[in-house]
Amino acid sequence: MQMMICSFCFKCILRAVIICCIVNVGNSMILTEVMTESDVAAAHQFFLNSISKQSSIESLAWVANGLKTMNKKIPDDKAKLICESAKEAVKNTSEIQPIYWAAFAVHALENCQLPSFPSNYFDKYLFDKSNAKTVAYAVSSIGYLKVKYDMEKMRSVVSALVKRSTSPNDRSVLLNTAPFLSGDLKFLTDCANDLVSQVDESDERYLRFDGGIGTTASIVHAIYQLSVKTGNPVALKKEQILKFANYLISRRRVYHPRVTSLIFSVLHDMTNDKVANLPKNSVPLAILLEHNGSLDQVKSSIQFMVTDIFGHIVPTDRVIADKIVHISSKEVVMNSKPFSRMSAKGNAVYELKFVDEKRKAGFYECFVSVGATNSKYMPIVQEGIVIKVSREIYISGLNLAIHESERFPLDDKAESMKINGKKLMQLSADDHQKLAVIFVIKDKLTKESILVDQAYLQFEEQNTKTIITVPVANDNANVYKADIDFKQMAKDYEFTSGMYEISLIVGDDVIMNSVIVKLALLNLQLPAVVEHAGKSVLESTDYKMKPEIVHSFRPPEKRPPKFISDIFSVAAVIPFFLLLCIWFYLGANIWGIPFSPVVIVFHAGLGGIFWLYYQFWVHLNMFETLKYLGILGTITFLSGISVLRKRADRINSLNESCFAKVNGEVVSSIQRGICALIGLSRDDDANDIEYIVRKLLNLRIFTGDAEKRWDKSVNDLQLEILCVSQVSAFTLNALLKGNKLDFHLSMNPSEAAQFYCTFVDKLRQNYREDLVKGFLLFVDVMSSKSSSGEEFMVICYPGIVKNVDKALESLGGMKEIEKHKAGSLELNFHRKSNVFSRPALSRHREGAFLIIRARRLIQASPSSSEQATYSVQLEVVGTLSSIHDFNSSLFDFQYLPMRKNEDGQYSEIYSALVPSTKEQAERWFTAPIPDPGLFLIPFSFTRLCTVSETILSREVTSYDLETPGRTAESVRIGDCKNLKCFCLYTSAARKNRRTYTRMAAATDEFPAEPSPLAMKQVKRNTFDPAVHEALEKAFSERPMWLKYSLIVKLKLDERDVRRLLPKFAFHIISGPWGRNWCRYKYDPREDTNSWKFQTMHFPFFRFGGESALSDAFVKWHLKVSSVGIRSSKEWDKLLTTEPAFEYTEGCLPPLRSMWYQMCDIHLPAVKELLSHRLRENQTESHPTDGWLKSGTLDEIRELIKLDFKKTIDTLNAQASQSKADESD
Question: Is the preceding omega at residue 930 within 30 degrees of 0, hence cis?
Answer without folding.
Answer: no
